[in-house]
Design a protein that fits this description.
With 374 residues, the chain is mainly alpha-helical. It is built from 13 helices and two strands; from the N terminus they run E-H-H-H-H-H-H-H-H-H-H-H-H-H-E. Helix 3 packs across helix 11 and helix 7 runs antiparallel to helix 12. The longest helix has 28 residues.
Length: 374
């Protein structure tokens, strides 16, 4: 090929041709993210989600003043309203902790409701058949509930670890199996003999969680708080928690350095199932006073929401559970006074989850504009 000298062309080479354009977005991964930035971005996503839910409620016919009254004034204006939030927050915190434990080792437990059902079934068996003396009946029901939830997650855990079957599918499908077995019991041998309604007979007074002495709050709340502190210590202080963080950050590296991933995952899954079973006990013995056919509805989604918003931190999950409890109580009020359907409350939760999930992207990435891309 002839050079510029051979062709007789002199002077500097021509400048490269510039292509027109308005520019482009550049995406960079942040190497270090401060706690302050994480908090600010998360709160921004939460505010956007709340604003979006306000728009949805206004479009449904609820005035802005009514939204403020229902979510702020009515909730925090009386001790009865505050106690109603805390009553709802107790089982929400328990199922949130179940999700936190499982998600920390990347075991996606979507079967919380099924585990709650079997936890309640095992606890109700103790109550119906008068197992043990009255003085220890309630602790026996607690332990039985934990065992029931644990047994219901054994199969999905082993399927994942031995055969590589996705636990999202197996835990989700087992929810339907548990629900149908619950219906068999409540429409069959465990139907209330007094009312003939499809729920179990009412627990005796000594089989129900006692009141703590303020409004209608039972020992479900202290149980949930104790579990939160215990799970926080397990995941943030103990060697188990150190291994779990290692597995969450880089499973392949954890396996390469000898971390017992199989045993760690199995232990976390069993603990998650046990906590979900306790959640079933807390609802049945603390709120319902018996086992009903709908006591578990919505808790899987709520547990996932709490674990996600709390960023798998058991102590932060306490605050998030209270926040979700506010949504539950306000949602019930909106249904009664403004004829808002129950699905609207679930929509509000979904909007908040999407907003917070989107904020996670901006925590880990930096987006900036590059002008005049060539």
């Amino acid at each position: 090929m002839a050079s510029r000298a051979d062709t007789g062309v002199s002077g500097p080479p021509p400048a490269p041709r510039q292509r027109g354009g308005f520019g482009r977005f550049n995406l960079e991964i942040r190497q270090h993210v401060s706690l302050l930035r994480q908090t600010v971005v998360l709160l921004a996503g939460l505010v956007i989600g709340l604003a979006a839910t306000a728009i949805v409620l206004i479009a449904a016919g609820v005035g802005l003043g009514a939204i403020y009254d229902e979510f702020v004034v009515s909730i925090f204006s009386s001790s009865m309203s505050v106690s109603a939030v805390l009553v709802q927050a107790a089982p929400l915190l328990v199922v949130g902790l179940s999700a936190v434990v499982a998600f920390r080792v990347r075991f996606w437990n979507i079967g919380i409701e099924g585990q709650m059902i079997f936890g309640s079934i095992f606890a109700t068996f103790i109550a119906i058949h008068d197992v043990g003396p009255e003085s220890v009946r309630l602790p026996l029901m607690f332990v039985a509930a934990a065992i029931g939830g644990m047994l219901w997650i054994v199969v999905p855990a082993l399927l994942k670890l031995r055969l590589g079957i996705n636990e999202i599918i197996s835990t989700l499908l087992l929810n339907y199996v548990a629900f149908n077995f619950l219906l068999y019991l409540l429409y069959g041998p465990w139907k209330d003999p007094k009312s003939a309604f499809p729920h179990s007979e009412q627990y005796e007074a000594f089989e129900r969680l006692p009141l703590v002495g303020w409004e209608n709050i039972t020992w479900a709340l202290p149980i949930a708080l104790i579990l939160a502190v215990a799970i926080w210590w397990l995941l943030n202080v103990s060697r188990f928690g150190f291994y779990a963080r290692f597995v969450d950050a880089n499973p392949k590296m954890a396996a390469a350095v000898g971390v017992p991933i199989v045993m760690l995952t199995l232990s976390s899954a069993l603990l998650s199932g046990a906590i979900s079973g306790v959640g079933g006990f807390v609802v049945s013995a603390g709120i319902e006073g018996r086992m009903t056919q709908s006591f578990f509805l919505g808790y899987t989604f709520s547990g996932i929401l709490i674990a996600f918003l709390a960023r798998s931190n058991a102590l932060i999950a306490i605050l998030v559970a209270v926040f979700v409890g506010v949504l539950f109580v306000a949602g019930q009020s909106l249904q009664v006074f403004y004829q808002i359907p129950g699905s609207m409350v679930q929509l509000i939760q979904a909007i908040i989850v999407i907003s917070v999930a989107a904020s996670e992207f901006f925590v880990r990435h930096r987006v900036h504009w590059v002008r005049g891309a060539g």
